[in-house]
Every structure is written in structure tokens, then in C-alpha cells.
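Standup notes, protein team

Yesterday: finished cleaning the Affinibrenneria salicis set.
Today: Urea ABC transporter permease subunit UrtB structure.
Blockers: none.

Input for Urea ABC transporter permease subunit UrtB:
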Amino acid sequence: MFSEYSFADLASIFVMQGFSGLSLFAVFVLMSLGLAIIFGQMGVINMAHGEFMILGAYVTWLTQHLFLRFMPSLFAGYFFVAIALAFLCAALLGALIERVLIRHLYHRPLDTLLATWGLSLILQQTYRSLFGPREVGVELPDWLMGSYSFGDNIEIPINGVFVMCLTAAITAMVGWLMYRSSWGIRVRAVVLNRAMAAAVGINTAQVDNRTFALGCGIAGIAGSAFTMIGSTGPTAGQQYIVDTFLVVVFGGAQSLLGTIASAFAISQSQSTLEFFLSGSMAKVIALLIVVAILMLRPQGLFARRVR
């Protein structure tokens, strides 16, 4: 597989594919952060998480058209508005779903899995009815186009750098919320002992609702980032849900550091292997490696120790 390339060629390929995988890494991190909050903190298996991502992608697409039609002079800044709207729409829908559906299924993981799977099918059909079955693409502002050149063979896309900066900012915000804010203290208290948290005056139902909404909102931001690396369709979210669960389980549920590390490892391995093999074979090999590691360490890479 490598014999036909020189050492310099292989070095350039690995660097290029590494930077190419950073965009996929950013989407994995944002998706996994939302899922880690919902699954790791609440124990809810949300099979509709990919559809919340696609909601954010469609909101970005709609925002682009609104700016092109009514505010073309402000088109250069539409993406920041789209990110905020994607988070807001996905979070509001998540809060509604938690209040109507998820709240009645806590501590019933199989029922939650089936209910959210049915929800994903409903959302897919809703998107198909509203936006049509064909995939749509987003037009990026001029300042997000192009690339930075490093040497003769290395090109770093500007939109990839922007997505990485966005991911770093969201990750830092989530880390602060979960480990430094008073709301994060309440979330961890509910996770450790729900009855005792309620006894000291914490509104556990409100914590659950806002936690689920936050996880869905971050998935909406992931949808905005996804528009930079792929086209948006009603079923596009299902292509990422398995990888996202894989990232969360591989890194260790409830571990922010584990989520980031596993997202980086899986995205980089897939991106590099796809250059030498087909996309399906790259996914198979990456999956086999992860399964082999989980057989030796089933708790994940960075499992939390709790008393």
C-alpha cells in the first residue's frame, strides 16, 4: 500500500489527510459533545441525535437564502447568525421533545431507544416534506473560501481552520458549564444522586430539560459545521450517528477529554485510510481497531472514577 510512495510523498499525504480529517474531527467533537451530555449525564440513548444535527444544517441553509434575498450586503456575516439560530432551533426542539416524550421514559433504556428511533424517522420525513428529498448545499462567504499554502504540497482550507476554532470555543464553553458553573454543579449532583439533589432543593426536572436542550443545541451547531464538508439531505444525519456513539463509548461516557481524544483518533484514522483504501474499507478497519481496543478496555479510554 505504501511501497509506491517515497518518504517525502508519504509525509505530505499524512499531513494533508491530517488537516483534511480536522473538519471531520470538528463535526465528530460537536456531535459527540451533545451526545455525551445526553447519554453520559442523563443515560438517554438518543437515536434522533443526527436529525438534530441536520436541523442545524437546514437552518444554516435557510439563513443563507434569507440573507441572499433580503440582506445581500450583510452576506459575509450570515454564518455567525446561522450558528446562533441553529443552536436555538435545535435546543428549543430538544426541550419540547424532552418535555413531551423523553421525560416519561427515564430509566427505561430500551423504550427510550425505540422512541427516539421512531422520532428520527418522523423528523426525516418532516425534512423530506418541507425541503424535498434532494440534498442541498450551502454557499459560503468569500472569507471562508480558499486555503493557506505551506510548501508545495500542503494546502490548509480556511473553512477547516474556522470550524476548528469554532469547535475549540464550544468545547471550552461546555467544559466551563459542566465543571465551573453553578448549573454544572446541579447537573452533576442530579447524576450522582437524584433523590438527594431533589431533597436539597434542586429542580431535577428543569435540569433534565435544559441538559437535553443543551445537547441538542450543540448538535445543531454541528449541523452548521457539517455544511462546510458535505451536502444536507433528510437522511444525512444517520451517516454520523453510529460514528458519534462510537466516539462517546470509545472515549468513555461522561468524559470530556475522552470524547475529544476518541474523536481525534477515529477521524484521523478514517481520513488517512480513505486516501489509500475505499471509504467503506476505511470505516471497517477503523471500527475493527476500536472494537479490539474496547475488548481490552471496555470502560473506554478515559473512564471516570466515581465512589
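Follow-up from PR in the comments: The chain has a mean pLDDT of 81.
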